[in-house]
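step: validate -> pass
step: tokenize input -> pass
step: predict -> running
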Amino acid sequence: MFNKILIANRGEIAIRILRACKELGIKTVAVHSEIDSSLMHVKFADESVCIGPNSSSQSYLNISSILSAGEVTGADAIHPGVGFLSENAHFARMVSEHNITFIGPSADHLSMMGDKIIAKKTMQNLGIPVVNGSEGVLEDVEVALQQAEKIGYPVIIKAALGGGGKGMKVSNTPDELRLNIKLAKSEAKINFGSDAIYLEKYLVNPKHIEMQIICDDYGNVLFLGERECSIQRNNQKLMEESPSTVLNDEQRYYIGDILVKAFKQIGYSGVATVEFLYDNGQFFFMEVNPRLQVEHSVTEQTTGIDIVKEQIKIASGEELSIKQSNIKIRGHAIEFRINAEDSKTFMPCPGKIEELYFPGGNGIRIDSHIYRNYVVPQYYDSLLAKLIVYANTREECLNKALCALDELVIDGINTTTELHKKLIQENDIREGKFDIHWLEKNIGRL
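step: predict -> pass
step: emit ->
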């Protein structure tokens, strides 16, 4: 087992990783930007190192500064968390070259999964169903128009190296496609350093369902069930739950079995989430996230497995002690992302938290880094806290969630709390009758 882990991240995920390390008896190093010196995980870590100015490009994305912090403190592993450098193959290689363990998959697997076109072809060759789309990167507008005619409108443009909804544009006609290609390439270049794009058939009313996988270095692969992530705006998730209301055990374990065989075949090691669009009873592969997901918490609640601790153990060379036959999905869990955003405009709302009260009780979990008088900076993701609610049934879970959201107090800034309270009182939400476009269609009324 590792002696010391450097946590190359910030916010709620950093303190989540720190807690897992403490439970495993591992010392921790917190790295932080200048403005983040007062974060909770920085205060609780055994050591801390400032790695640069407030801008993430000069701090949390600064590979040389993070590696220097690892060497100076004698860390024998680096956990990248989520976002930032967690899917950066170059960073993973550099970490290994400095004789430090990268807590994540191999650099080769990160490269494979990071290129959405290569990942799609790989998964298709392994028997995983995919959405009909273009073959390879589209360099020419005319070729894109020809491909779109073959696929059939509407089509969606995606960034080959992207994620998080950036560089995605839906086109219903050739004229829209011409315009959107320029916009998508520009957006992809700004966000991912590459303007490579490709096309896929746009599914009109699908659900967004993702599958959690854990693999070790000994060929053991576990399937931990699914998460329903269809409540989203601009492809950004707001609420996640497990299990999904539309899958039965036969469908669940059908796709799970395919994924287990696929990940065994490629020799993957670490945690991964495979994202699908689910439409008319069929799964269509979107992408693999070769890292920890923000919403891993709901799977932990329904399976009883600490995914972060398992991830660390795997990276240290341990074999999975859990067998697939031991994994039982029990009850229902829902996660609410509490963001520092205006519930109507979704504009970020940095500022000082003047009053704070977190709800409690049986089945209530809060993952957060904030505290009273904490000043939310303008430089980073707006996620303040994750409220995770667990109960025996989905109806009980929704009722308990409403009580918890009523109790939650974050004064001084605007948050998405009120939006969540409205959402879970909607008949469509309570009955599971929603898809990935539901929120955008109803946000004006809400």
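step: describe -> The CA atoms of residues 15 and 41 lie 5 Å apart.
step: cleanup -> pass
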